[in-house]
Fold each of these.
Amino acid sequence: MDVTVREETPFRYRIEREGAMRVPGVVFASRELLPQAVGDRALEQVVNVATLPGIVRASYAMPDVHWGYGFPIGGVAATDVDAGGVVSPGGVGFDISCGVRLLAANMERADLAPHLKALMDILGDTVPRGAGRGGLWKMSGRAQMEKLLVGGARYAVESGHGVPRDLERCEDHGALADADPNHVGQRAIERGLQQVGSLGSGNHFLEVQAVDRVYDASTAAAFGLRAGQVCVMIHCGSRGLGHQVCTDHARVMEQSLRAYGIKIPDRQLACAPVVSRSGRNYLGAMAAAANYGRANRQLLTQAARRAFATTTGVDVDLVYDVSHNMAKVETHALDGEVRRLCVHRKGATLALPAGHPSLSEELAEAGQPVLVPGTMGTASYVMVGTPDNGAFFSACHGAGRVWSRHRALREVQGEHLRSVLESRGIAVRPSSWRGLAEEAPAAYKDVDAVATATEGAGLARLVARLVPLGVVKG
């Protein structure tokens, strides 16, 4: 790829290519992380995103950036809604509202130790995972599914799957307001009916963790975290329903590109003006799928609560739930003017600072938790949004792959990996040896380096470091 890469600061690189780029590309990374993005052609995708109609400021990539469908995973871009800006399903991805949820248990790591095996056995036996059907809440049909697609986690809580406080600690209070189930096709509905309350496969997981280190005691306390505390991190999304929504609407947009006079360098960036019928239909369907994802994680939260109650008798509270595959119409100040922007966060998470009007009362003073999971056997991080973010209040969402799944299978044996992890005191409950090998820690970037780069770039601040005690793999 014929591009110019220039270091602007130790954690910010400017990426440019002669031709049709409307704005520059900007990658937030360290010198240690940048070569990995070059190696898998993620920077080429950053450049391609910079050609989208209506894009403003820059095509951004987070420190965990790697190649994905359409946008790179870790890609962020905003388009001006009122100036022909587009929305692209490739800027959200197949797993709409895939997200991370962190729970905090009212117990210390040492107190859990004698109960850990029993806890992991219950979680391993009761949490549905893997491809295909299997969920904790079987929907009765389209009518009930539409209630869930509109209500999200709110509908789940109202139906007895949670407590009202959960919604105060969830992005958008548990549901996006603009969901339109009328634009979710029947095939998507059918795929989703039997999957509410399930992890799925791939890099999805439920992990029991402990707070290993606190960097900011006051912010950690506001989040409900303390050193030594037991936590649970859940990573999953909208399952087959979200995948089908992306597939259906990307196909429609690809067929309508000529009608809108849009030329793109990559068909995976198929898009339509936000204000067009195709754009509005996709945003309505995407919001519905996002609400499915929030409800999905709400059901898994209840499964974790039941497992803890059975084995330890302790309560588990929600710290926060935030998505990392979304496109949202937001208002941002650009050049002294407030403008409506469609902000795509593909494998990137919202990172709101203290005082932002979208935050609940509980979090207004501290800011929004930013959840950065690592991999099996490595740390995860809790960070917090900063006021001078510079990327539409966005941050990284995890470690980011460096190996393909095929290479991981060549390099790692699942049975051996489990033995290694368990020798380090990490209880592992895999759905398959193949799936375990594909998600080996060596297949990912160093999450410590990613967190350091995220803070160095001013995207978010470190609050706490978590270490794994047991993992249920999708």
Amino acid sequence: MTSSELMLEGLNLMFAGMGFVIFFLFLLIYAIEFASKIINRFFPENESPISSQPNPSQSTAVSNVDDVTRLRPVIVAAIAHHRRQQGLK
């Protein structure tokens, strides 16, 4: 075989492999969507009435502040642990 034939064979093999990978990924996407539809059909989420929910802007603001105050000690401890492991001050 000449080098041009080998190059063409390599390109052919590359495109065939890429085609199979793309086909498999699309098949996987559709399989996940199908499984999601089946799960949502037989196991729906319990939806609470809209009137009982608080104002979303207020709950989000309070939630973010609570998360920051709750996570601050965890973040400080994680940084201190990392610095101890690395031998940093």
Amino acid sequence: MQESIEQYMQTVGQQARQASRILARASTQTKNNALSAIYTALKNSEAAILAANQIDMTKAHSNNLDSALLDRLELTPARFRGMLQGLNDVISLVDPIGEITDMAYRPSGIQLGKMRVPLGVVGMIYESRPNVTLEAASLALKSGNAIILRGGSEALESNQAIAKAIQHGLQVSGLPEAAVQVINTTDRAAVGQLITMSEYVDVIVPRGGKGLIERITNDARVPVIKHLDGNCHVYVEAQADLLKALPIALNAKTHRYGVCNAMETLLVDEKVAEEFLPRIAELYEEKQVELRGCPATRRILENAVPASEEDWYTEYLGPILAVKVVSGVEEAIEHINKYGSHHTDSIITENYSIAREFLAGVDSSSVMINASTRFADGFEYGLGAEIGISTDKIHARGPVGLEGLTSQKWIVFGDGQIRQ
């Protein structure tokens, strides 16, 4: 069996590499036609895709998947419409491929610049979210990349149904069907093969739990674009407008629990803690959110559970929130940089200078002023969709859209020059 998996993955890799050569030269019109054909195929397949998702949801409930995974797995009609809207947004985005910048003449007479090009073949490994199948495929196609998708076993029926519509759209448009391949086995050996096929795969993007991403990062022989977890913070500063802070802190935590841009730790300046904490705690109580607080927090909120050192590091992905009272912006920045995951952190303040200090000091891929951390998302950032979020500092950082799936190569124009 191991041998057949290896052969299967080698074939998938070879086909992806061949398809990537064609996609790299495809015109914007050709790529948009393919995406439009996929849109039509998906719309015509909505009932079948939602039915497939119900099969996955039934299995997931019987297997006692936790609430965060169930939330990510479910495809409602509203979420399906959101998927289609994301696809439309990708179609309308400017194609980055072929863009030439920084043209300049050198003393030798040559003219050089940089051209934006696809990365080549993207390998995507993800859990639960079937919408990622479409998001990743659409971004890869628009940016001229072939993509190999390996979803989790819990979303197998949903992913196969979405893949069928994508394949139909590619076939109609004349682009190679191997431009988007969804792995048809749940055998984990397929993942081991994918992340080590450096001759066929140019970059791996894992999306899922911390355990999955740690495994990929440790075992991959292909460059990885990743974030391990989303331990996001909101800091209510002393000069915050509390009428802004209350809905932001509530939304950042309770809008959706099982997502990487949900707030997991609330920091409150000691100057406003007495006024702010009882008011926000009342709102959290309505949502049945458990609060785990530092000693200063617990002096104000008697019902708060004592927070341990581990709580400051934890991504709960559920109705639990760590709360800490801090002495000012310096302590807030220090706490975030020590315990956070470099994902998304927000300050609520009306003081421009302190806001600028927070922006400069917090070492995260998205830093916000007076906004919910839930905005850290490719769709909300105008990227159409995202293939993932990167907390790395090299190549791509934050939500990764079209440009994150490209690189630049030097181009040189000469007229007979030779090196003297």
Amino acid sequence: MRRPLRFLPLAAMLALSACTDPAEPAATAPPITTPPPVTTPPPVTRSPAAFNKALHDELVAMLARDQADRNGTPQTETDQARTARLKDIIRVHGWPTFGLVGRDGENAAWAIAQHSDFDPAFQQQAIVLLRDAVAAGQASPGNLAYLEDRVAVAKGEPQVYGTQIGCGPDGPVPATPIRDESGVEQRRAQAGLPTLASYLAEMTTICAQDAN
């Protein structure tokens, strides 16, 4: 009998997922000093979101309950309830960024979206928001890579970064083929992920432990 695929625990995924530093605010242009006097107002810039400790703590606690549930300690809060709360947060604040909730808060938001497989439309929305946040230096490109691959695999499509690797009867196996596998290491490096070879080596150890 073939054993079903088993996937890398979230704790390991969090360790492998990269983070980028928040973007520095743009410098204000120097005032014009040449005559005649110019009274043009300075350019309007969007200030980065202020850190919200209460929201940070809520997201981190939600992730702790998510992990407890998956590690065999049932919780009264379901995946659906966590997803619904994350949707509420996004409606008010947008994607929870580094500046708003810190790196661990952003990781928690991503993990909740990662576990929202029952709501693929929301996962697709999260991808769009994450792309914008990553472009602004306010979210982890590794998190984005994992979510993009997860959504692709759910559709039965090739994955881009090779993050969705499970344990088959003979060891690690991609959940779906890796698109343009010759370029996967470059794409992983751009996302701040370790090499596929090192990832597969880690998965080989995990799969061997799982088989015992």
